């Protein structure tokens, strides 16, 4: 009797399991059929007005094979509306790139569109010393895209530069294994970004810009407009990373800056951020600068009298070619000296990476789940781990300096 009961119980269990599996199978089958029917309906409704394919709608389902043989219905024709963007500021996204940078350009565009511009729709402007021959960039955005050719006088090494002296400087840096030591094109780029990009005709209608470079990555969903933030809070220059410049590349830069300060004291803001640049009241330069491959800033500052005089003064020294003056220290020194320090803004909530250096927001931005970067690898954390701190610390709207290296 016990054996018989056990056998009966086993049979009942098997029956229950069989029925359960059968139900699950039937449910999945009906789900697939339901999705196929929805895909088919969506096809009839939208196929005539979009580029959507059957594979986009459902993949390799039964319905997707049926769709291929069905003509679009003219009755369901609907015009695709123009995208509505949230960006209202007088601003643009600026991209200096060569044709050979295409893959890196597409990567950067996709990242910024995903994390910001798909909602705000700011126009893209691409600048190149040659005709930009690749139109695939237009497929990465619904915003407008323009291509601009850089005037030769703004790009190539000026005739008045002593080439023998410039070559000697390049060889000296090459012997020291300095990056871009013997690259003239890199020097052209630094000079262009320092003094000419904001003069390009395509940029004249705009006040604010966001500088983008190939092979950069963004990590956080930006739910506000940084251009509006600058305007509403009277900010002029925004950055994410501050580093030290290579001293071999700017051996005479600070001396030139000191001479400019002496000749044009009227341009120095009394509430400046000199303490970010110097540990001894301006006697020497501590090499700190904002990493200018990321900039969100006001071009009216670069177009203004103080910066125009400053760039012309430095350019006449030939340091872009005799040494390797970068646009990062040039921009940083000007912003720190000519602006009120409260006009500088640290975009702490924008996760950003260029090359192997990354800024990842810490609390509270990271904890909201809107950032995908590894905050342990952030340059901010690495600096603290090494027993150093950023020289520029923002506490609300206040900028103060701290001990330690930038």
From TrEMBL:
InterPro entries, alphabetized: Glyco_trans_15, Nucleotide-diphossugar_trans
Alphabetical UniProt keywords: Transferase
SUPFAM superfamilies (alphabetical): Nucleotide-diphospho-sugar transferases (SSF53448)
Keyword Transferase: yes
Entry keyword Amino-acid biosynthesis: no
Family classification: Belongs to the glycosyltransferase 15 family.
UniProt-listed PANTHER family: ALPHA-1,2 MANNOSYLTRANSFERASE KTR1
Name recorded for this polypeptide: Glycosyltransferase family 15 protein
